[in-house]
Design a protein that fits this description.
The structure is a single chain. The strands form three sheets. This protein has a five-stranded mixed β-barrel. A two-stranded antiparallel ribbon has the order 4-5. A two-stranded antiparallel ribbon has the order 8-9. The protein is elongated. The chain has four helices and ten strands. With about 160 residues, the protein is of the alpha+beta class. The mean pLDDT is about 80. The chain folds into two domains: about 5-120, OB fold (Dihydrolipoamide Acetyltransferase, E2P) (Beta Barrel); about 125-155.
């Protein structure tokens, strides 16, 4: 019987992760929010699904590092296995759920990074824009076809001579 319990998720932190002590160890808990998007065939618009929330926990110093580096809105990739998350509240209400025990995490983008990157962009000088446009024109389909033809001839042992412009 195969016993596979691994999951990879990407999403944004709903709030700052919280680290708490558990005996001699520590655990960092947080919630990841994600939503799927798809293109509507009829209208051509991008539609988002309802957001989904996933609770996760990271143990030890690895979790403390996450709490230090990641804040609300940070995009994360987390990998781990699902564990039961059952508890009873003080009023006697029972809760049943799952929590992802993370064994690997990676920051994809910090909160507000896109806004900050756009604010720091400087206008491109005219000469540099012309060079960039020339490079883009150089990569046309004619150029690609010429390179493909040269590779085919070279594989046959022949040389391809390009006309200089």
């Amino acid at each position: 019987m195969i016993d596979l319990n691994e999951t990879k998720l990407t999403g944004n932190l709903a709030a700052d992760p919280i680290t708490s002590a558990v005996g001699e160890n520590s655990v960092t808990r947080g919630r990841l929010i994600r939503s799927n998007s798809h293109k509507d065939r009829e209208s051509g618009e991008w539609l988002k699904s309802e957001p989904m929330a996933f609770d996760f926990e990271v143990w030890g110093n690895y979790g403390a590092a996450l709490a230090e580096k990641a804040k609300k809105g940070t995009s994360l990739l987390i990998e781990g296995s699902w564990i039961p998350n059952h508890f009873t509240k003080e009023d006697g209400t029972k809760f049943y759920g799952l929590r992802l025990r993370v064994n690997r995490w990676q920051i994809v983008a910090h909160a507000g990074a896109k806004i900050a990157a756009n604010a720091e962009k400087k206008p491109t000088p005219f000469a540099k824009r012309r060079r960039t446009a020339a490079k883009a024109a150089h990569r046309t389909s004619d150029y690609r076809a010429s390179q493909a033809r040269a590779r085919r001839l070279q594989s046959c042992g022949l040389r391809h001579r390009q006309a200089r412009r």
